Fold this sequence. Notes:
This protein is an all-alpha fold. It has one domain. The chain is 71% helix and 0% strand. It has 13 helices and no strands. It has helices at 6-10, 17-39, 44-49, 52-73, 78-85, 88-100, 106-122, 130-153, 159-174, 185-209, 215-222, 224-237, 243-277. α7 (106-122) packs antiparallel against α13 (243-277) and α11 (215-222) packs antiparallel against α13. The two termini are 43 Å apart.
Amino acid sequence: MAWSTAGGLQRELSVDTPTQLAGRALVAFLALLAFVAVRNRGRTILVFRTMGIAGLGVAVCTAIASGSFIVALNHATVANVLFMQAVSPIAAALLAWIALGEPITRRAGFAMVVALVGVGLMVGGPGSGGLYGFGASAVMTLAYSVGIVITRHRRDVSMVPAICLSQLLLVLVVGPFAQPETIDQHDFVFLVLMGIGQMGLGLVLFTMGTRLIVASEVALITLLEVVLGPFWAWVAVRETPALMTVVGGAVVVVAVLIQTMGESASRGLSRRRGNARRPRSRPDPAASPLRGPSDTGSGARRRPRE
């Protein structure tokens, strides 16, 4: 829900693109830094210092993706940008195959073909943003995909500090080109909403939620951003996506569902096979079933856990 509001909130801004980028990033950085400080009391600096190369890589990828996302929104419709963003998990599987030699299942390969058809339907149509809009969306998708590959193979990377650092990088790179004097009260309110509500709160809730539900459910829930994003844009400025955008976006969503369901089924099968191969523990015949957990004196043996 929080992430899906980006397009609608961005449509309310009247400042130029660099100011949008720097303003949103600065607010998001401060919000995420406060969250990291509260969550890691007394160890805030240590958390950033122990991110490693992988954490820095995620930060750079997120900075590029986040910046390209706002640039794309300034040239293309919200629906076009979000549907392109939805391709990221599928593109990540292709990148992992190219860079790391990860096998691609038939289902994943079919999902890639379906997603390519969906993107093809959207490219060149009304609302695609032309070269700038599609180009920024493609860079965003590629950067997100690289970040996904890194986090999948380095699960020790803490996402919140990495994304917090990514927003600082954006401020340092884009800040010199921003025009803060052009920000009025209306723009300031919406930049704060984008930084704290959409970016900061969305990430915090996502981080907490991934600890409570399985990965396939996370992937399906995050697809709500693709569905709700264009709706908020319609509420804000009555922005209606073109028919080909809707059709192509629906094809992309189907492709993501195909891959997500395939990965979920594969993990379930692997888990069942692992449980089947695991030898069952046998009770120790020398241990008395009547012996209590505190009876571990001389000559007594603990009853093995089953």
